[in-house]
Amino acid sequence: MSVDDSGAPNPPSKGFRGQIWRFLSFEQLITGPVIHLVYWAGLAIIVIFAFGIVGATLGVAWREGGWAFLLAAPALIGGALVVFVAGLLWRAFCEFYVAIFRIGDDLAALRRAAQAEAKRP
């Protein structure tokens, strides 16, 4: 591995070894692909929660019978609103997380451009 004018090590640029170096030195972040998996996993948990609300509401109404179905309707609507808001908040959280890491990527690109500009005569 060579060293540049500032004394910082120059990473290998090509091949598998270069990819490993970029991963270990945080030149390339894995957050982008991982956050998509986290988003879908969280969304699946929210959907399971929604099925639980529907099942619990209808199960209690069926067990009690009579007027319980009229009382179950507001609980079902309230549960649906909670699930909808939870889905929106989860999406907003994941988008915020992605935006923060994209800012980091943009700053890294600006740093590389500034270093390239400084090397020109």
Task: Give a verbal description of the structure.
By secondary structure, the chain is mainly alpha-helical. It has one domain (30-119). The protein is built from three helices and two strands. Helix 2 runs antiparallel to helix 3. The two termini are 25 Å apart. The model has no long low-confidence stretch (mean pLDDT 83).
Beta strand count = 2
Rg over C-alpha atoms, rounded to the nearest angstrom: 26 Å
- Strand fraction equals under 5%
Shape: elongated
In DSSP terms (H or I, runs of 4 or more residues), the helix count works out at: 3
Largest sheet: 2 strands, antiparallel
Residue windows where pLDDT falls under 50 for at least 5 positions: none
Estimate percent helicity.
Answer: over 70%
Please give the alpha-carbon distance between the first and last residues.
25 Å
Q: Whole-number average pLDDT?
A: 83
Order of the strands making up the biggest sheet: 1-2
Secondary-structure-derived class: mainly alpha
The tally of domains stands at: 1
Give the H and E element order.
EEHHH
